[in-house]
Amino acid sequence: MALVLKYAARSDVGMVRLKNDDSAYVGRYLAVVADGMGGHAGGNVASASTVLDLVHLDRGAHDDEPLTVLADEIQAANSLLSELVTTSPQLSGMGTTVTALLLNGNRFAFAHIGDSRAYRLKDGVFEQISIDHTFVQRLIDEGRLRPEEAEVHPHKNVLMRVLGDVDASPELDLATFEVEPGEKWLLCSDGLTAVLRDSDIENVLRGTSDLQRCVDTLVELTLSGGSPDNVTVAVLEIEEVPDDSPAAADVPVSAPGAAGTESPAVPLTERDPGDSEADDDEPARAELIRQDLSSRPHILVGAASLATETGQIPIVTKRSAERRAARLLTHKAPPGSEPAAPEQPEAAPKRRWIVPAFLALLAVLLAAVLWVGYTWTQTRYYVGSSDSNVAIYNGVSQSLGPIKLSSVTEQTDIPLDSLPEYQRNRVEGTIPAKDLLHAEQIVEDLRGTARINSCGPSAPATPVKATASPVPSPTASAGSTAAAQSAADPDNCGGRK
Q: Would you say 313 and 48 are in contact if contact means Cβ atoms under 8 Å apart?
């Protein structure tokens, strides 16, 4: 008999957020939750990049000790974030939490950094496995703060450890746990624990046998409780299956496509990374990642799902496609593993059509993917700038070679200069919308902000999750910054808080 994971996951945008910075992946052997930070610039990039860099570990056997493999891959993901910041300086300061589980035999390899959490329900005992790497948790550990005081502490969101470009070798919490069929694990971002108590989470986990219903219940309870943050939940259950069961079959990393076919990722390895034509191929790169992921049963949610489904985080899809292409080469069969076919010189001329036909088929498939991608982009909307004013665009804010994938649908009379600096930067960086109605609602919110801003200057607030270096010098969280602004403006001009 073999052990595999049953799983369910869901991620949702918080009540006051415009985008989801969380990402999560769950499969037969791997579960990862990442909560990105860095505001508009890079929270979603950090979490999506990290999760997509780890999904290839979702297999039942590894060359080295699974805990070492998991730790090394997370450190590699941290290096990748630093590389992304080097090539895109606007991402400077981004980071992400990571809480991951890798099943191997009857043992879980566990790795954790940040304030996302892992809970376990085993033998009737519900307990928190992870330790929050926050400033208030350090105060609790040192006996300088009581746990009940942590919830109202002004620096409760200040992180002491995180993946990102601030530490070349971040310190991870690592452990190994023996597992048994029937036990459950829950991974979540801090959006869940900011609203629900541990006892609430335990009651739902104990009382709900259906994993997807359990996840949905926890997310809905969090949202109805007024969650100010994005909420992501993954629930796992250890399941025992026969060794010859399809559920226990391992999936080779080097086979992103259907069995017996070559992966379309091969031509990508032949491209020059600096080729501008390749840089404009986000839909094709997203398609490559989707094909890779389709080789294994899984659930992908949050920013990582957005990157693979739509290519709206092109810097992630580009790097992930490149790494998958490189991984495909490194996992090719070793020389001599298959007997060479006998030479048949007479039959060779009859098969000369195979190569041109194969290349023609690839060209047709690529054209079809690009056409489908372009058609899909014309169903999307976002808010951006046009002629120094706020405007609603139809499409996505990228180009496919000389083809622009968006056009102005509605030009407003809201000058960019009338917005606070933070809102102006958001508009210039584009704000995605679910549909035209959502885009119009965003514009109305910006109009109100512009009207309020005309009442008088106020210090811009950056809604990012504060981070801190290992030397304790905490900075105020986004929530405490907003409170300080409110105190500085007692007249509350135009309803501004």
A: yes
